[in-house]
Amino acid sequence: MVTVTGEAQSLAGSMAQAARIIAGVAAGRSLSAELERAADQGDSSRASLLDLTHGTLRRYGRVQALSRILSKRGGTDPVVEALLWCAFYVLDSGRHAAYTVVDQAVRACAMVGQHPAKGFVNGVLRTLLRNRAAIEADLAPDPEAHWQHPRWWISAVQRGHPDAWQEVLEAGNTHPPMCLRVNIRRISTQDYELRLQSEGIAARRLDSRALLLVKPVPVSRLPGFAQGEVSVQDAGAQRAATYLELAAGHRVLDACAAPGGKSGHMLEMEDIALTALDADATRCSLIERNLARLGFAARVQVADCTRLEKWWDDRPFDRILADVPCSASGVVRRHPDIKWLRRARDLDAFAARQSAILNALWSALAAGGKLLYVTCSVFPEENDAVVESFAARMPDALRLPLPQGAASTLLPGPEHDGFYFALLAKRN
Q1: Are 363 and 219 part of one and the same domain?
Q2: What is the per-residue pLDDT across 394-413, written as a single tens digit (0 to 9) for each?
Q3: Which of 301, 231, 296 is nearest to 261 (CA)?
Q4: 363 in the same domain as 304
Q5: How confident is the model at residue 41 (pLDDT cuts 50, 70, 90)?
Q6: Which among 86, 256, 284, 376 is annotated as catalytic?
Q7: d(Cα 302, Cα 132) in Å, to the nearest integer?
């Protein structure tokens, strides 16, 4: 009798769970929603699930190209197809012996209710292992297989960033950095860095508040997190609050505020009167919880920021942060399902929504006030194109240089994600 180790049983179970989640994403559902569903059903080993789902989905082009080459039969069950994608990722990772991966993928077929697919999955994976060199040669000319992004996405990045498109695409396939924002109202950055060292957590200071962890850790390991001493926030995202040049007493609007990271940062910086909006009630509760953890209060309201008559009291704001909905192409390594869910036509829809938000919020900005337009997108269609069109049709809009001469476009890299910033002033 063959004895199956606990590790192997765990791998088969994790692959089965991951396959169901990935199949859901391939069908058009978000990864976060599928992971929440799995948690509700009591699926175990979240760390393993995150690795398998994120790792497989980051390999958008490669796993699909391998499947096309190796799978000759049509009408494969979507979960079996996703199981193969997952197995391709595990083989590429090199963390398990190849025979173990094949064995556990076959076992996982029964776990997803596809017992008859065992022979098919076994044959596909063994064919890959026998003919890997030839198959890799077949993949080489395929840009989607090489760059791990949809073809339209590759073309859009090439157009928008002709001198850096390879770096942008490569960054989208990496693990994201983990950066902390120290609440200097509670503790100095230097003292918090020492607390991390005492906990065996290595970090590097990026600026007066930002600490980049050498290796990501669970939030539960961060000392003082529950007490509001520190927050997890990308170093690029931390620039937004500083670019607004806040002053005590300012009336400030965070128009698309959830989950509240930038709201918290602004309140840490100055004593302001903050209004935070989000159209989703559940996401508004996240804002409230995050601010409560930090010890701050703000007016948090469920509202569509473009429907001013529903939430605005006609008192103009000194500062407005418009962190608008976008393709999220600059944070795709954190949300790898984006590569599967977005379509080229979505960019026009996002741009139209972004323009509508700018038009509405401009009415709520005081004369002499400043509005910061922010996206986490690397596509110019959502960035310069939107801002330049808005400034051209608004005679009282003046585009200002960012503080310290910072560039508007921040491409993703080892220290931060990709963002775009444009600072607009309303003439008196």
Answers
A1: no
A2: 999 999 999 999 999 999 99
A3: 231
A4: yes
A5: low
A6: 376
A7: 54
Q: What is the pLDDT of residue 72?
A: 74
Q: Is 75 left (phi over 0), alpha (psi -120 to 50) or beta?
A: left
Is 376 one of the annotated active-site residues of the chain?
Answer: yes
- Whether residue 377 is contained in a domain is answered as yes
CATH number of the domain residue 417 falls in: 3.40.50.150
Task: Report the CATH number that the domain containing residue 186 is assigned in CATH.
Answer: 3.30.70.1170
pLDDT at site 40: 67
pLDDT tens per residue, range 338-357: 999 999 999 999 999 999 99
Do 18 and 104 belong to one domain?
yes
- Show the CA angle centred on residue 133, arms to residues 127 and 134, nearest 5°: 75
pTM greater than 0.90: yes
Q: What is the mean pLDDT of residues 132-159?
A: 96
Q: What is the count of structural domains for the chain? A: 3
Please check the confidence at residue 4 and state whether its pLDDT lies above 60. no
197-242 pLDDT, tens digit per residue, is 999 999 999 999 999 999 999 999 999 999 999 999 999 999 999 9
Q: The dihedral of CA 268, 269, 274, 279: what is its sign?
A: negative
Dihedral angle, C-alpha 139, 141, 147, 152, nearest 10 °: -120
Are 394 and 279 found together in one domain?
yes
- CA torsion, points 194, 199, 203, 208, in degrees to nearest 10? -40
73 in a structural domain = yes
Its domain, for residue 229, covers 178-233
Do the domain assignments include residue 238? no
